[in-house]
Amino acid sequence: MTGTPLVDQIRRRLVEAGYRDLRTPLRVAGVDFEFTAAMQGSQGRGLDLVVLIDTTTGAHGDREGDRIRQRIEGLSRALDVTGSRLVVTAILAGAAPAGNVDALSEICRVLRVEPFEHGRDASGTTAPEQIADRIRILLPLSIPDADSAGDAGSALEQLRRALPKGGDARVVDAVLEASREGAAAVTTAVAGVLDGELDRASDANLAPGDGE
Amino acid sequence: MKNPVLRSVDVTNFRSVRGHVHAPLDAQVVLVHGENGAGKTSLLAAIELALTGAVASLRRADPTYAPQLLHRSAVSGEVVATVGADEDGDRRHHATLTAEGIVAGSALPRELAAFFGERSYLPQSLLNQLLQIYQESSSGADSPLARFVGELLGIDRFDAIETGLAPLQDVRNLRKVVDRWQVVELERDRADRLAQDERNTLAGIDEGIDTAKAILGRALAVLELAIKTDEAPDAIDAALAGLQQEDGLERLTDRRRQLGSIRRELADAPAAAAGPIRDAADAIAAYSRWESANGQALEAVRRRVAELLPDSAMPPEIPRFADEAARALASLNTRSSAAAAHARQDAARLAEAEAELDAEKVRLKSIEDEIALLPSRAAGLASALADISAYIESETCPVCERDYGEVGRGPLAGHVHDRVRTLSTSADRLLALGRTRGDASAATSRLAGETDLLRARAVKAEELATLDRQAVDSQSLLAELAAMAPELAEGGRLRAAEIAARRADGDRARREASLVASRQTVAAFAAAAGLTTDEELEPIQAIDRIEKALAGEAERLERRLSARRQAHDALTAIRAGVRRRDEIVAVAAGQEAIANRARDALRRAEALRTQGRALRDTVDRVRSAIIRREFNERLNRLWRDLFVRLAPGEPFVPAFRIPTTVTRGLQPKLVTAHREGGYAGGTPGAMLSAGNLNTAALTLFIALHLSVPRKLPWLILDDPVQSMDDVHIAQFAALLRTLSKEHGRQVVVAVHDRQLFDYLRLELSPAFPGDSLITLELTRGPRLDTRCLHRRLSFQEEMLLAAA
């Protein structure tokens, strides 16, 4: 495969992600479609058909939006004719092509990878991450490992565990129960517990033998 | 429960679902489509209700939402969700509905139910809330983000706890919410103060008791009682009662008074004792001698005086008789002489006055005679003529109209004028005569009165002779008295001396009798006082000694009496003090007990308060820990990845930042970061377009779902694409596919847009053997019953490019 460094980078990234190259021109329903490159996903992405369009060199009339659109429309129709479930993604690599490219997004998924001004290294390649961001939807999603603390149970359970041990359960129980009803209920609940404790004292005041 | 799978949901008369609907869900992807109001949301909410026993989004909006869950045309309803898992068979979770609300249910375990509500199910309300978070950039505790974070992490109740426990921090606020706190505090302070007051009073009383005991001690010493002051007051009282009474004091006082008067008597006696006894006889003899020498002369003078002054009684004492007789005789002499002289004067005047009277009578007679000669009305006639003269114009008289010329004595006017003049002169003379006659008449009557008076007053010749004799007699008697004056004075003196001598004699006799009695009394007193009467001793000295003895005894008795009184008073004071002390000690003890109880109650309440505060601190700590754990870099990375997938052209990405400076009420902050690194500043609401905000909200939910261990690998999204443009929808479809196919999430998505539904159906088609897709289309039947058409799509080998 030959192409610009940008197209090559995209291709390499997709290959890493499990895509395989298809032979170009792409032949569907007996019709050849010329693309800089065509790739297909595997497994869960087996229905992804990716076509790469190099708008920099402009081979196959790739510098003109209308011609790109016509070609992809043809491909789409051919796929429909054959009853295929393949989903087309077009990657426009390089400078923005002339003409109406927005209309293209009504036919297929369009991803644009522009040459990057920044991060270009001495060899003229762009930062791999920046390219990856542009075609991120085609790449596998890596989920970082969740730490075990995430499995700490509900917030209230964590709270209960974090409380100092050996205390009077009345306050905690009343407050946690009332917290469902809001702040005012919490205040009322804790005030009720305190009042109850203080009341216990004043009850003692009224005990027999204390009649002043 | 490993790899749980939602198998199916059955919905009967729930919310907008009328009748019964069965919806199979056992595929990797379930696409739900229906027009607005067809029941998509109800179907998804039914899953939530069956699994969690509640519809959280409705509950947040209205806590009394439960009765509204039943379809309004029905009387009962039910939702059933069937969940399968690797290790065991299907489980049926359901909830039954009546008009009253949710009556029965068997939900997932609490932890899983919480996970489902927080991280698996994205109802539209939550999505709207997420959007709101971006639009409102505030970061306070009430901000939408804070609420979302609170609800998502289940720490909204933490906020309630923290706010609700805030009054515990400050005791002033505490007093406001805990009614009894201040009451008990006041109770404690009041009791403390009262107890302190009582103790202060006690100190005063103790002092009083000590003073009384000191007084008692001194009194007991005086009384020579060997009893301690600390003994019981009753015992001391008994000891005092045993002492003999000191009743002799009155008798002593009486005796001392008697002695005092005797002493005074004795002191007076010596001065009067000597002298007059000898003089008395002399005085009597001297007077007798004088009497015999001058007695007769004096008697003669007395007799003559009595004759001359028969009306006045002369005093018998000689000097006074001499004085008074002299004064009376002088008076008589003056009176008689004056009367005689006056009588002679009157007689002379009478003679003169009679002569004058005769002269005046003659003068009066002559005046009267002259007046009789003068015309009495001369003045009136003169005046009339003067008036008439004004009418005289010729010689013809204006009165008689006769011609005066006929008379031939000059003119008429001149005649009348002469007449007037003559008449006027007579009038003047008459006036002068009248005045003289008045004077003469007055003199005549005065002299007549005088002569009458003098005649009446005239003294007879015999009387005049008597007066002259009296004058002479009194004069001679006076001379005699004057000659006798020295003898009379001597006689008077001698008489007085004689009388004094006689009186002194009597006095002395009486005093001597009294002295004898006094001596006897003194002797008796001395015997009584235990003193031997020394015959040699002068009575005064004896009295001194007796008095001294008596005074000593009296003093002793006084002292004992006073001591006894003091002892009684002190005992009374001690008794009262002790009684009062006992009372106060009891009261103080009572108040201290109250104060201690209040203190104890406050201590226990304080312990509870401390626990409350500890709880509040723990809440804050745990919340901070949870927030720090949840909103970490991993979440940001995941979120960024998801966001970039959906918005590859957006240079900014949203992120959470945890403030490092906040120590309390920690809340994550929403910021935007530049995709290439570094914070761009500003909130996502300010930096992102509306479509990208929706994307941000959606990806945040998915990121939160993915950032924790997957307890339930389900993602249920209710119409998640509201304003995403076509580009985003294509990317969103790809994202759903990624989640489903690569990460094993069972995805249930409801959409109302037909085109989107078709697109998603294509994009999410089964891509490999075992992959599956179910589409559910909700419509209304002919009788408005809800109907659910379901189709199951399975994998078909894509042959088109196989050759390539």
Written account of the structure:
The complex is a heterodimer of chains A (212) and B (804). Chain A has 212 residues and is α/β, with parallel strands linked by helices. Helices cover 36% and strands 15% of the residues of chain A. Chain A is built from six helices and seven strands. Chain A has a five-stranded mixed beta sheet with strand order 1-4-5-6-7, sandwiched between helices. Chain A has a two-stranded antiparallel sheet with strand order 2-3. In chain A, a hairpin with a 7-residue loop joins strand 4 and strand 5. The radius of gyration of chain A is 33 Å and the shape is rod-shaped. The N and C termini of chain A lie far apart (106 Å). Chain B is an alpha/beta fold and 804 residues long. Chain B has a domain of 214 residues: P-loop containing nucleotide triphosphate hydrolases (Rossmann fold), CATH 3.40.50.300. Helix content of chain B is 64%, strand content 11%. Chain B has 21 helices and 13 strands. In chain B, strands 7-10-11-3-12-13 form a six-stranded mixed beta sheet, with helices on both faces. Chain B has a five-stranded antiparallel beta sheet with strand order 2-1-4-5-6, covered by helices on one side. A two-stranded antiparallel sheet of chain B has the order 8-9. The radius of gyration of chain B is 79 Å and the shape is elongated. Classes of the chains: A alpha/beta (212), B alpha/beta (804). At the A-B interface, strand 2, strand 7, helix 3, helix 4 and helix 5 of A face helix 3, helix 6, helix 8, helix 16 and helix 17 of B.
Q: Report the mean per-residue pLDDT of chain A as an integer.
A: 79
- Under the CATH scheme, the architecture of the domain at 5-126 and 712-803 in chain B is 3-Layer(aba) Sandwich
Biggest sheet character of chain B: 6 strands, mixed
> Quick one: CATH superfamily of the domain at 5-126 and 712-803 in chain B?
P-loop containing nucleotide triphosphate hydrolases
**First-last Cα distance of chain A:** 106 Å
Rounded to an integer in angstroms, the radius of gyration calculated over CA atoms of chain A is 33 Å
Radius of gyration of chain B: 79 Å
User: Strand order across the biggest sheet of chain B?
Assistant: 7-10-11-3-12-13
Quaternary form: heterodimer
Helix content of chain B: 55-70%
Order of helix and strand elements from N to C terminus of chain A: HEEEEEHEEHHHH
